[in-house]
Amino acid sequence: MRDFGEYLRAYWAYVSNNLGWGKALRFALLWLAGMFVPLFAKGFVQLPEWLAITWMICWALLGYVFAPYGMWKHHRAQITGSSQPDQK
To answer: Is residue 68 a part of any domain in this protein?
Structure first.
């Protein structure tokens, strides 16, 4: 559980320093809206049940894959920046 707390602190610091909470909230709302696209589309067109379920599973997997990408990219930049010797 300590690791999860550390992860949340790192995520909080990353969002605060790089994205800003407004941009992070927009991404979260966009992701949440994407989960319910099949539900809204059913109001206009007839969709097979398997298509709606497949969409929601794929959308969730994409969120799972891409969510830590920003933190990894930031962490990698920090490591690369700190491992290079000072050039004078």
So the answer is: yes
Contact 63, 31 (CB under 8 A): yes
Number of domains in the chain: 1
What's residue 72's pLDDT?
A: 67
For 3, 47, 53, 60, 65, the CA distances from 74, given in Å and listed in that order, are 19, 40, 33, 23, 16
The answer to whether residue 85 is domain-embedded is no
Q: Residue 36: inside a domain, yes or no?
A: yes
Helix H segments across the chain? 2-14, 21-35, 37-41, 49-66, 69-83
Residue 86 within a domain: no
pTM: 0.52
pLDDT digits (tens, 9 = 90+) for 8-28: 787 788 778 877 888 878 888
d(CA 57, CA 62): 9
Give me the domain span that covers residue 66.
2-80
